[in-house]
């Protein structure tokens, strides 16, 4: 009947509406007419216009995010990219902080290990003053690509201001779209050091020998700084003071910079005391029976038939001192008598003797010592030409 047909039509319509709603909520429902949707798409539960507006908004947001990421990556790359000014600042910051290893990692001087013994963190940290960086400025290339760049650094060391120009070279890397800049020559400065009566010296706890065969000095490498050089190996018979060296950039552009250091040592009063005692011992030996046969004694005193032999005057001071280790003592007087000689002495005689002493020195000018730590000294007793063997009253 008509009512029955309408009833069934209403049921079918309601069924289709329910299926459509489920399709929108749960995705594709295969086997249901009109319910299939494109694979990978998500049905929108809102009106079509609103869904399209949301889709456009999503695309806009994604585009903005991508743009921001690209710009951020560009700035990040720019920050990572090497520039001449940035490289020089980084290098100088290592030197200012006392990081010698960091500076060497950027610019290696390419010298043997024995020439870089003072290019260490310990030595640089011991400097009384290190570099202070005031300004760093690269040359203006006017936007052109250059393969070589000059960078001028204004520096200060211990209150003295100076400038240094660095040369940098561009190097293109095969594994990167960025170029790198390398400093051609770092601030590694040669300093000539020599010693007088000083065999070794130290800086910041690092000790090395001085070449005594090179009086003009031996070159050692330092980073910029103010260093105190300490004498080493002088022993107890040499007095030597430390010396201060100011190392800037090696250009010798001012009198403030040190170019040559000589560590001066001197044979001290303790050694002079040992020399005088050696002279007195020699005179006392030649004026004592049983000890007078030594070859250093004059022949008149070496006789075995002496009836009188005594020291009248011992040297009490040194009248001549030489930096090479040669000394002359005050004249001594010995009284003797030899009745058994071929011309017998009827009266005692006095003999004036002049002692001269020589201290044995090493190649570096340091007194050589014996097993007891005493200086090795040779003594000669001679008769002055102005005096002679005369009888005593």
Helix and strand element order: HHHHHEEEEEEEEEEEEHEEEEEEE
Rg calculated over all Cα atoms: 48 Å
State the major sheet: 7 strands, antiparallel
Strand content: 25-35%
- Number of helical segments with 4 or more residues: 6
Estimate the mean pLDDT confidence.
Answer: 84
- Report helical residue fraction: 25-40%
Which structural class do the helices and strands define? alpha+beta
| Amino-to-carboxy terminus distance | 183 Å
Low-confidence stretches: 1-9, 34-40, 73-79
How many strand elements? 19
Cα shape:
rod-shaped
Describe this structure in words.
There is one protein chain. It is built from six helices and 19 strands. Strand 2 (148-157) and strand 3 (160-172) form a beta hairpin. The chain has helices spanning 2-26, 48-80, 84-97, 100-106, 121-125, 269-286; strands at 132-138, 148-157, 160-172, 179-183, 189-196, 200-203, 206-209, 218-222, 225-232, 238-240, 243-247, 260-267, 308-313, 318-321, 326-329, 332-337, 349-359, 377-382, 390-391. Helix content is 26%, strand content 30%. The termini are far apart. The longest helix has 33 residues, at 48-80. It has 393 residues and is an alpha+beta fold. The strands form four sheets. Strands 13, 14, 15, 16, 17, 18 and 19 form a seven-stranded antiparallel β-sheet that branches.
How would you briefly describe this protein structure?
This protein has helices at residues 2-26, 48-80, 84-97, 100-106, 121-125, 269-286, and strands spanning 132-138, 148-157, 160-172, 179-183, 189-196, 200-203, 206-209, 218-222, 225-232, 238-240, 243-247, 260-267, 308-313, 318-321, 326-329, 332-337, 349-359, 377-382, 390-391. It has 393 residues and is an alpha+beta fold.
């Amino acid at each position: 009947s008509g009512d029955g047909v309408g009833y069934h039509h209403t049921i079918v319509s309601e069924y289709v509406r329910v299926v459509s709603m489920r399709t929108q909520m749960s995705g594709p429902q295969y086997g249901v007419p009109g319910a299939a949707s494109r694979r990978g798409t998500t049905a929108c539960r809102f009106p079509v216009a609103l869904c399209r507006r949301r889709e456009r908004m999503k695309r806009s947001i994604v585009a903005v995010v991508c743009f921001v990421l690209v710009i951020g990556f560009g700035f990040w790359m720019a920050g990572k990219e090497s520039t001449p000014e940035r490289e020089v600042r980084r290098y100088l910051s290592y030197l200012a902080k006392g990081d010698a290893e960091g500076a060497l990692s950027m610019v290696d001087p390419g010298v043997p290990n024995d020439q870089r013994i003072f290019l260490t963190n310990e030595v640089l940290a011991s400097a009384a003053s290190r570099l202070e960086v005031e300004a760093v400025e690269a040359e203006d290339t006017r936007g052109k690509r250059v393969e070589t760049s000059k960078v001028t650094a204004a520096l200060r060391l211990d209150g003295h201001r100076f400038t240094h120009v660095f040369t940098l070279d561009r190097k293109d890397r095969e594994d990167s779209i960025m170029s790198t800049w390398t400093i051609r020559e770092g601030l590694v400065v040669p300093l000539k050091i020599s010693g007088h009566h000083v065999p070794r010296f130290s800086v910041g706890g690092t000790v090395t020998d001085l070449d005594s065969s090179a009086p003009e000095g031996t070159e050692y490498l330092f980073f910029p700084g103010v260093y105190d050089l300490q004498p080493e190996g002088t022993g107890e018979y040499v007095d030597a003071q430390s010396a201060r060296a100011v190392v800037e950039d090696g250009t010798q552009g001012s009198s403030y910079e040190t170019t040559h250091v000589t560590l001066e040592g001197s044979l001290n009063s303790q050694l002079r005391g040992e020399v005088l005692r050696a002279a007195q011992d020699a005179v006392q030996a030649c004026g004592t029976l049983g000890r007078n046969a030594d070859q250093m004694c004059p022949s008149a005193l070496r006789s075995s038939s002496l009836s009188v032999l005594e020291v009248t005057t011992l040297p009490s001071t040194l009248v001549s001192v030489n930096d090479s280790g040669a000394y002359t003592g005050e004249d001594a007087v010995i009284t003797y008598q030899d009745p058994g000689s071929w011309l017998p002495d009827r009266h005692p005689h006095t003999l004036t003797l002049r002692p001269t002493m020589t201290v044995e020195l090493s190649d570096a000018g340091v007194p050589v010592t014996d097993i007891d730590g005493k200086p090795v000294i040779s003594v000669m007793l001679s008769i002055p030409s102005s005096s002679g063997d005369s009888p005593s009253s």
